[in-house]
Amino acid sequence: MLLIPCPWCGPRDEAEFHYGGQAHVAYPEDPAALSDEEWARYLFFRDNPKGLFAERWSHTAGCRRWFNAVRDTATNEIHAVYRVGEPRPVIA
Amino acid sequence: MAERRSPAAAFAARFEAASAGGGPRLAEIPFLTQIDLRVDPKSPAAERIGTAIGVPLPLEPGTAVRGGDLTVLWLGPDEWLLLGPDGAAPGLVERLTEAAAGEPVSVVDVSAQRTTLVVAGERARDVLAHGCALDLHPRVFGPGRCAQTTLARAGVVLVAGEDGFRMLVRSSFAAYVAEWLLDASLEYVTPPAGEAAPA
Questions:
Q1: Are residues B91 and B123 in the same domain?
Q2: Residues B16-74 pLDDT 10s
Q3: Stretch (H or E) spanning A39
Q4: Nearest chain A Cα to B134, which residue?
Q5: How many CB pairs below 8 A link A and B?
Q6: pLDDT at residue B23, as a whole number
Q7: Please, which domain of life does this record's source organism belong to (chain A) (predicted)?
Q8: Measured between CB atoms, which of B62, B134, B150 is closest to A15?
Q9: Which residue of A has its CA nearest to B150?
Q10: Is B121 part of any domain?
Q11: CA angle at residue B25 from B23 to B28, to 5 degrees?
């Protein structure tokens, strides 16, 4: 089980969290102007890196806040957690 | 007036028997007032609310403060749960709404949502550790701390006290959690003389 450090509550079991997919996917500025393909890309196309990945998590069984985490998809190590609205931290 | 029945009322006798047998002290405190409060902690309304209830809203995650017969639990960065005695809800809601003075503040009486179970005594931590992954050692989770977490996969709000824990459990989960607590305390309970130990 992963131990995920909630930026509010501290380290908690993975079972208390809900996964929210890739972080920093910006909503299109003018959705009506998009072609079907561009809209589909916004809705369904996500990065799938082997390595560092910024993703959203929600602490559903705790403070119920959404936050972002940078997780290494190969090792499951969580390198950083940060609050919604903060920029993705640079990890050396 | 309709008859009120607390969600774990049926467990009173079994709680008492387990407590008497050397297990943790188990009990239900029914009908506590619970008010859910959401307000921007930096707003003047938050300050006025602090003055109105006589204790400032705790800003550190996972902390609880007491003021008179009220306990204020931190539930989130802009959310608190006010615990008070039975019957305090209408007056409290009125005071909070008055202190909000038209600012965007949410005050909801959620007293019926959860009931309060007490797990106290020296075995309290051991029993909870059967189903709760949090570090409950007093060094980390002593009096003045609270946490929303899961106990045996049921969502609970744990509040640490001097002698044990108060645990807020959803009404519909109360019977399940009560059964689970009784089962988890079984190994610490000495059966009355003449009775065989439970298998």
A1: no
A2: 999 998 889 999 999 999 999 999 999 999 999 999 999 999 999 999 999 889 999 99
A3: helix A36-44
A4: A12
A5: 34
A6: 87
A7: Bacteria
A8: B150
A9: A61
A10: yes
A11: 135
